[in-house]
Design goal:
The protein contains 14 helices and twelve strands. By secondary structure, the chain is an alpha+beta fold. It has a single domain, classed as Cytochrome p450. The strands form four sheets. It has a five-stranded mixed sheet. The protein has a three-stranded antiparallel sheet with strand order 4-12-9. It has a two-stranded antiparallel sheet with strand order 6-7. The longest helix is centred in the middle third of the chain and has 32 residues. The N terminus is likely disordered.
């Protein structure tokens, strides 16, 4: 094992707080959830309010911003001041210009806690280092490996679906979405399957901003403890695998990669979290969101049952429709102009994929879920440019195989209650989705 990783897990993290630390009082409720987006004061619109996403009320505000203020400035939020980029083409322009709009500061609205390792993965880098680290892990999700993994995915999908009750209500998120994606994530890391739900726990902890208030809030102390545990476990796997050949799992690829074998522990932890979140939250919420969309648009469900060959195209539409990660953030490196607005060096630029994927000027009938949509792969859910999601094909394959097997077993996956959504403006997902299966 490299000298740079022969350290205690705690030393890669900021000093452990002795008591929960609160970064000031959270802002008072904005009132946006209960307001009419068309009449709410334009200068007070704050898309970063997680309550909007929990209530599924964000689309009305984004539609207004696209019409009236497509590059919108929010002066006051829990995350500080920031710009919202809401149009498809403007988001692509930002993605394509890393020299002006850098990833190196952070990729979410919230600034990293000082000393945090979360700003140290390759998604938070620019230039050659970012490309080298990305290239190192890419073989795990390259076409050759995906061909090997597809029968494994199918076997696990079959096992999961065959264990589900017919005609009884259960939580689709827990029994299917999380179970499948976590199982495959364990395969990509060669992580013990009996402990795979630890990956889900670490993913959830990593994407929940500390001290936001509310019943699902966590403290910095809780996050610190969970991420330290994650690093400690994966340091052990690194030691076991380094020097034994790049067997194709993420850990062995990083341990023996030319660009990564000497990486500091903080970079290792950040890369782990990136891969865990990318492999877990995105696919799991597309699986849940796809079921909900088919129930909201029953004619599309009928279309699917009549012609299963549409599944690959439907997968892209599900990923667009759900947009499992609502935004990514960049930081302006210099004074510039975007869509007529003056941006100052150091400003936060938030690219709202959830808005760009509903942009009427880029996507025809964007507020309709159409499983046979022409050009369905034209969406922003995987990003664009140098940070395009390295695991996108893996995500698509999991959803495709799942629906191929669903149609072999069930005539309907019927949503029978209100979904419980995640209170987050970053992860656009579900905590619960009650469903009932109907046999073929």
């Amino acid at each position: 094992m490299s000298q740079s990783l022969e350290i205690d897990a705690w030393s890669a993290l900021p000093p452990r707080p002795s008591t929960p630390q609160v970064r000031g009082e959270p802002p008072k409720p904005t009132g946006q959830v209960d307001a009419d987006p068309a009449s709410f004061p334009l200068d007070q619109i704050d898309p970063s309010d997680g309550d909007l996403f929990a209530a599924d009320q964000h689309h009305g505000y984004f539609a207004r911003l696209r019409r009236e203020d497509p590059v919108h400035y929010t002066a006051n939020s829990h995350f500080g001041a920031y710009w919202s980029v809401t149009k498809f083409d403007d988001i692509v322009s930002v993605e394509k210009d890393p020299e002006t709009y850098s990833s190196a500061r952070a990729i979410t609205i919230s600034d990293p806690v000082p000393g945090s390792p979360m700003d140290s993965s390759f998604i938070s880098m620019d230039g050659p280092t970012q490309l080298a680290h990305r290239t190192t892990v890419a073989p795990a999700v390259a076409p050759k490996n995906l061909k090997r993994l597809e029968p494994i995915i199918r076997e696990r999908v079959q096992y999961i679906l065959d264990d589900l009750p017919i005609g009884e209500t259960f939580d689709w998120v827990d029994r299917v979405s999380i179970e499948l994606t976590t199982s495959m994530l364990a395969s990509l890391f060669d992580f013990p399957r009996e402990e795979q739900r630890r990956l889900t726990h670490w993913s959830d902890i990593a994407t929940t901003p500390p001290n936001l208030g509310g019943p699902d809030s966590i403290t910095l102390d809780q996050r610190h403890a969970a991420l330290s545990e994650c690093l400690e476990v994966f340091q052990g796997l690194w030691k076991e695998r380094q020097g034994k050949g790049r067997t194709g799992d993420f850990v062995s690829l990083l341990a023996d990669g030319e660009a990564t074998r000497e990486m500091p522990a903080r970079n290792y932890l950040a890369t782990l979290v990136l891969l865990i979140v990318g492999g877990n939250d995105t696919t799991r919420n597309s699986i849940s969101g796809g079921v909900l969309a088919l129930n909201q648009f029953p004619a599309e469900y009928d279309k699917l049952c009549a012609d299963p060959s549409v599944i690959p195209n439907m997968v892209s539409e599900m990923i667009r429709w759900q947009t499992p990660l609502s935004h990514m953030r960049r930081t302006a490196t210099r004074n510039t102009e975007l869509a007529g607005r003056s941006i100052t060096a150091g400003d936060k630029i938030v690219m709202w994929y959830a808005s760009g994927n509903r942009d009427e000027d880029a996507i025809e009938r964007p507020n309709e879920f159409l499983i046979d949509r022409a050009g369905a792969r034209k969406h922003l859910s995987f990003g664009w440019g140098p940070h395009f999601c390295v695991g996108s094909r893996m995500a698509e394959m999991q959803v495709r195989v799942l629906w191929e097997e669903i149609l072999n077993r069930f005539s309907r996956v019927e949503v029978v209650g209100e979904p419980v959504r995640v209170r987050s403006s970053f992860v656009n997902g579900f905590q619960e989705l009650p469903v009932r299966l109907q046999a073929v």
